[in-house]
Structures are given as C-alpha cells and as structure tokens.
C-alpha cells in the first residue's frame, strides 16, 4: 500500500495498445422530423459524425463533428446520448465503438463543408431511408428508432439510462 508521502504510481501513465475506435454518430432532425443524411463519394448515405478526440466528451465531439461536416451549430447541452454500439464487422483489426447521439436543437442550414467526402446533405423521411447506408450510420439510426427498416447486423447495442443530474 502506498502512503500519502509516496509519489503516485506510474502504472496508468501510458495508454494500452488500441483495440477500439470511438466515434459519435449524430442524428439531427428538422422541424418536420426528417433526418439529415449525407451522400458520401463512395455512394453510401451517412449521418454526420466522427471520432471522439482525446480529452473530448461525446457531446462535444457530436457538436464539433456536426459543425465540421455540415456547418450546423449546436450546443453540447442539446445532445442526448442514446447508447453505445460495438461493431467488429467493419474492421478485423479494431472494434468500432459508436456512441449514438441525437441533437435536439441547432442553428443554420446544412452545407457541404468537406466536398472530398460528402457531395450533398439531404433531409430524409425516416420511413424512406436509402438502402445504401453506411453500416455504422444504420446502426445509430436503429438505436434512435428500433422500428426503422435498416439493415441489421452482428453488433451489440447498449442503451443508456438517464441518471439524475
């Protein structure tokens, strides 16, 4: 056992080897309930989102990625975390961990800010989702609305329960 006079342990100073990639998938809807999807240059549709940077909260990552990809501005307080999705299908080397989030309020109009990746953003009726969905985006949409007709797959969903603040 260490005593208060001893230096803190160096055990946790170095991170372990990476075994997973953490990202945030962002569901954002307009006043009509349509969900925002971007057409990736590869021909698949996807939600805004991307990796969570070191030291960044999931809510901050969702807001940052939304702004970087669409120019929509939101506040971290308007982000609801729905759950965690573990997916080992899209990569044999890493487990993709996607935190499904919903942005409850935003300002602006979606624009293409990364034309090398996304050719356009469109508001889409949830019951008319394209079949060509990026697998992690489909998983996030399924976490948001389990009844949606999106491809299912071998992944694990963990719904979050709200804790009192």
What does this structure look like?
It is a single chain. The protein has 165 residues and is α+β, with helices and mostly antiparallel strands. The protein has a single domain, classed as Nucleoside Triphosphate Pyrophosphohydrolase (Alpha-Beta Complex), CATH 3.90.79. Helices cover 14% and strands 30% of the residues. It has 2 helices and 8 strands, in the order ββββαβββαβ. It has a 5-stranded mixed beta sheet with strand order 4-1-6-5-8, with helices on both faces. Strands 3-2-7 form a 3-stranded antiparallel beta sheet. The longest helix is centred in the middle third of the chain and has 13 residues, at 58-70. It is globular and about 50 Å long. The protein starts with 19 loop residues before the first strand and ends in a 6-residue tail after the last strand. 29% of the residues are buried. The model has no long low-confidence stretch (mean pLDDT 87). This is Nudix hydrolase domain-containing protein. Residues 19-147 form the Nudix hydrolase domain. It holds the Pfam family NUDIX. Its cofactor is Mg(2+). InterPro entries: Nudix_hydrolase, NUDIX_hydrolase-like_dom_sf, NUDIX_hydrolase_dom.
């Amino acid at each position: 056992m260490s005593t208060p006079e001893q230096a803190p342990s160096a055990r946790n100073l170095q991170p372990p080897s990476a075994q997973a990639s953490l990202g945030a998938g962002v569901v954002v809807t307009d006043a009509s309930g349509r969900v925002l999807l971007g057409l990736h240059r590869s021909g698949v549709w996807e939600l805004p989102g991307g990796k969570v940077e070191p030291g960044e909260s999931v809510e901050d990552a969702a807001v940052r990625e939304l702004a970087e990809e669409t120019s929509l501005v939101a506040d971290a307080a308007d982000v609801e975390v729905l759950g965690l999705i573990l997916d080992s299908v899209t990569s044999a080397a890493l487990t993709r961990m996607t935190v499904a989030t919903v942005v409850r309020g935003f300002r602006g109009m979606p624009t293409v800010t990364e034309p090398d990746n996304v050719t356009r953003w469109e508001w889409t009726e949830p019951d008319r989702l394209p079949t060509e969905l990026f697998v992690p985006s489909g998983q996030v949409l399924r976490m948001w609305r389990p009844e949606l007709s999106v491809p299912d797959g071998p992944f694990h969903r963990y719904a979050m329960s709200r804790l009192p603040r």
